[in-house]
Amino acid sequence: MSIISKDIQKAVQLLTNEQLVAIPTETVYGLAGNIFSEKAINSIFSTKKRPFFNPLIVHIPSVEFLENVVTHIPKKAKLLADAFWPGSMTLVLKKNRKIPDLITAGKDTVAVRVPNHPVTLSLLRQLAFPLAAPSANPFGSISPTKPSHVENYFKNDIQMVLDGGSCKNGIESTIIGFENEEPIIYRLGALPLEDIEAVVGKIAIKNKKEQNPEAPGMLARHYAPKTKTFLVNDVLSELKKHPNKKIGVLVFKDSINNDSVTEIILSEKGVMQEAASNLYNSLHLLDTYHLDVIIAERFPENGLGTSINDRLQRATFA
Ligand code: TXA
Ligand code: MG
Asked: How far is the CA of 217 from the centre of ligand 2 (A)?
């Protein structure tokens, strides 16, 4: 029997009983549990095979709720929350004493966001506690953007995927931390840099190659398909380097018109948002075709293109 269901009341019941439920958000599906239940939080880590040093995002129902979670809200954090929540932005702020150390991996900060999905907002309003929810995939593999992706990963481990359809943004939230009251990007994501800068001015990006990254979602190889993947500017010349191989090609908008490869076009109209929304599903699909190689085309370096390139880069072995 399928574990996919639209029954919000059942999700309320399971979560209240310290069980896990996969929840829809506008970015990717999350594997959710009560932040105050040690049992639930431990099973998030064990189900995902996620190392305990990697902290979780706390999902709250409203901007107003933020004061129940953190001790201090920098001015620019408030501006950002008012501008973009509910939405695809996570803020990392000083945690208060109620937030268990297990959630934050012992850090004195907590990552928080108000997701923009009607089903999960309704769920959060009915619960007496916020939800910790990392992306609902085994550690290091491709994030889920459809209920079936989660079911394929975890049907033997959890009782329910709350069905909210396909995720319309399709890549994870943009994570913003604060140093000396000033915002700094910890992870590029579904909210474009340009939109953030329009609210708080020029903003720095934490060095991606850091040894000990602030956000382990910044680890070099992450979000990865099982098939060997290359990210290139010119797909046709990369093709020539792989003679007699079964090849999958992932392009932004223009077909390479080559019948000997399996091609996926992310957005024929050339719309970045549509491309982002199709990205992980396309990688999931290409991974099922038993190909030797996936060749992905690099996106233009602006708006969501920058975030998509970030994820594609992490999908490669390079
Ligand atoms: O869109 C999203 O953000 C999705 C949906 C489900 O909300 N969630 C998500 O969670 O991508 P996860 O766990 O896959 O990625 C969360 C990232 C991790 O890289 C983690 O290290 C970072 O957030 N993070 C969490 N707490 C942090 C903290 N206190 N300081 C720095 N980074 C933190
Ligand atoms: Mg993740």
From this structure: 6
Quick one: tokens of 139? 């550690």
Full-prediction pTM beyond 0.85? yes
DSSP assignment of 124-159 equals HHHSSS-EE--BSS-TTBPPP-SHHHHHHHHTTT-S
CATH code reported for the domain at 4-72+81-170: 3.90.870.10
Pocket residue to mutate for ligand 1, from 26, 90, 223, most atoms within 8 A of Cβ = 90
Q: Shortest CA distance to 280 belongs to which of 120, 115, 141, 89?
A: 141
Rounded-to-integer distance, Cα 259 and Cα 20, Å: 44
Q: Tens digit of pLDDT for each residue in 79-111?
A: 999 999 999 999 999 999 999 999 999 999 999
Q: pLDDT (tens digit, 9 = 90+) per residue, 175-233?
A: 999 999 999 999 999 999 999 999 999 999 996 554 445 555 555 566 788 899 999 99
Question: Per residue in 242-282, pLDDT tens?
Answer: 999 999 999 999 999 999 999 999 999 999 999 999 999 99
Ligand 1, pocket residues at CB < 6 Å: 25, 27-28, 30, 54-57, 90, 92, 104, 107, 109-111, 115, 133-135, 172-173, 175, 186, 214-217
Q: Which CATH class is domain 228-315?
A: alpha beta
